[in-house]
Amino acid sequence: MTATSSKSAIPATLIPGDGIGPEIIEATLAILDALDAPFAWETHQAGMAGVDACGDPLPTATLESIRRTGLALKGPLTTPVGGGFRSSNVRLREEFQLFSNVRPARTLIPGGRYDDIDLVLIRENLEGLYVGFEHFIPIGDDPHGVAIGSGVNTRHGCRRIAEFAFDYALKNGRKKVTIVHKANIMKALTGVFLETAREVGKHYEGRVAMDDRIVDACSMQLVLNPWQFDVILCTNLFGDILSDLIAGLVGGLGMAPGANIGASAAIFEAVHGSAPDIAGKGIANPLALLLAAALMLDHVGRQDLALRLRRAIDRTLIQDRVRTGDLGGKASTAELTSALIQHLKND
Ligand code: NAD
C-alpha cells in the first residue's frame, strides 16, 4: 500500500488486475507521478490476482477500500469463459450501483480511416439483458432444448441514466444526445427506455438537442457518417456493442477508456481486457488506462492535470510518433512511458 502525506491527497483504490494489468498500471503510475497527480493509492487485488492472493476474485478488503475511497483505477480482470466465477467487473458495478458507463472516443492519430472523431457513448450499466435472468428448459434428452433470457429495464433506471446523459452533455459543452433503442421489436424492454429518455430530454430543450435511432440503423450510420453523433445514450447490451464499434473508429481498444459512475463511487478502467496473449512481454499499450486516469482527474475536478496529460499523449503519438505495436509502431510500454514523462517535464 502506498500513500502520500500531502494534505490535498485524494484517497483512491488501485487494482492492478490480471494479464497486462500490472504492466500498464505501473506505466500509468509513473506518468501520474510525473504529473504530480493528487491520488493517495490503496493497492488491492481482484480477478485471478484476487483468487491467487486471497482465494476470492473480489476480496472483501478490495470492496472495503472502494467503499471508503469512492474512487478506483482498475486494470483489466480475467473472467473464465462459460463456467468459473461470475465477472468481477459486473459484480463491482452491481455492488457500488455504478449505473453509468461513460466511454469517450476521440481521434488521437490523424490519417486513419476516420479523422476528427469526438463522441461519447453513455451506457446504462446495471439493467437490460445483463441482469442474468437466464435458464434452459430440457427437451427430451437435450438439457439445453430451449434457452430463455429476460431483460429488466425500470422507469427509475432509465430516468437516472437519461438524466446523467443530458447533464453530462450540458456540463461538457456537447450539443446533442441520440437515444439508441430497438423499440420497434422489444417494445416493452427498450420502449420504456426510449419513452423515459425522451421525457427527460424535453427538460433540456433549447440547451441540448435530442434525437433517436434504432440500434441497427445507428450501427450503419456510425460507420458511414460518425460525425453526425455527439453523445449516444444506450441500454446496457447495445452500449456494450456500440462502444466497441466507436473504439474501432479511433484505432481500437488500446485507446478506449471507460468510467463506471454511481452516486457514491466511480471506477475508471481501460475498455480492453487482460490481453493474456501479450502479457509479460513489455509491449502493451498503456494509453487506454492512461486516458481512464485522465477521466478520473476530470471527475475529481483536476481538469488542468487531465488536459496536460491528454496534451502529452497527443504530442507523444503525433510529434514523436512513439507508438506501441497495436498502433503500428515499435515502441515498448517502457519507451512510450518515458516519452510521455519527457513531455510532461517539458510542458
Ligand atoms: P482483450 O481486450 O484482452 O484482447 C483482445 C486483443 O486486443 C488481443 O489480441 C490483445 O493482445 C489486444 N489488446 C488488448 N489490450 C491491449 C493493449 N493495451 N495493448 C496492446 N494490445 C492489446 O480481450 P479478450 O482476449 O477477449 O479477453 C481477455 C480477458 O480479459 C478475458 O478473461 C475477458 O473476460 C477479460 N476482459 C476484461 C475486461 C475488464 O476487466 N474491463 C474487459 C474485457 C475483457
Describe this structure in words.
It is a single chain. The protein is of the alpha/beta class. Helices cover about 40% and strands about 20% of the residues. It has eleven helices and twelve strands. It has helices spanning about 20-35, 45-55, 60-70, 90-95, 155-170, 190-200, 215-225, 235-250, 285-300, 305-320, 335-345; strands at about 10-15, 40-45, 70-75, 100-105, 120-125, 130-140, 140-150, 175-180, 210-215, 230-235, 255-260, 265-270. Strands 2-1-3-12-11-4-5-10-8-9 form a ten-stranded mixed sheet, sandwiched between helices. A hairpin with a 2-residue loop joins strand 6 (about 130-140) and strand 7 (about 140-150). Helix 9 (about 285-300) packs antiparallel against helix 10 (about 305-320). The longest helix has 17 residues, at about 155-170. The model is unreliable at about 1-5 (pLDDT under 50). Nicotinamide-adenine-dinucleotide binds near residues 253, 276 and 278. The site of nicotinamide-adenine-dinucleotide has 20 residues, from loops.
The shape, in one word, is: globular
Q: How many H/I helical runs?
A: 11
What Rg, in angstroms, do the CA atoms define? 20 Å
One letter per element, helices H and strands E, the order comes to EHEHHEHEEEEHEHEHEHEEHHH
DSSP strand tally: 12
Bound molecules: nicotinamide-adenine-dinucleotide
| Low-pLDDT segments, ≥5 res | 1-5
Secondary structural class? alpha/beta
| Proportion of strand residues | 15-25%
